């Protein structure tokens, strides 16, 4: 599973890079991203694209988000 740590990037780069990586997922593939804050705009965009996600706060700061493109 691909992992991206986007916590050190300035806005809007975490959103843009996470969406680009999510858009590139093939059916059944997943991605993990670390973002500096709870990425509400990202989560809304993922839902609009029909992608599944789960998020949890990170112990060392930021938010962990798992993104899944459902199998066709």
What would your notes on this structure say?
The structure is a single chain. The chain is of the alpha+beta class. It is built from two helices and four strands, in the order E-H-E-H-E-E. It has helices spanning 13-23, 40-48; strands spanning 2-5, 30-35, 52-57, 63-68. It has a four-stranded mixed β-sheet, covered by helices on one side. Strand 1, helix 1 and strand 2 form a beta-alpha-beta unit. Helix 1 packs parallel to helix 2. The longest helix has 11 residues, at 13-23. The chain is globular, with a radius of gyration of 11 Å.
What is the spatial order of strands in the main beta sheet? Answer: 1-2-4-3
Shape: globular
Structural class: alpha+beta
Low-confidence stretches: none
What is the number of E strands? 4
Approximately how much helix is present in the residues? Answer: 25-40%
The amount of beta strand, in percent, is 25-35%
- State the major sheet: 4 strands, mixed
Count of separate DSSP helical elements: 2
How far do the termini sit from each other?
18 Å
Integer-rounded radius of gyration: 11 Å
Q: Helix and strand string, N-terminal first?
A: EHEHEE
């Amino acid at each position: 599973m691909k992992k991206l740590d986007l916590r050190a990037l300035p806005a809007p780069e975490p959103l843009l890079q996470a969406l680009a990586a999510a858009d590139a997922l093939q059916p059944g593939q997943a991605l993990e991203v670390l973002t500096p804050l709870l990425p509400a705009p990202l989560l809304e965009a993922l839902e609009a694209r029909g992608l599944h996600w789960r998020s949890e706060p990170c112990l060392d700061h930021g938010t962990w988000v798992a993104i899944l493109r459902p199998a066709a």
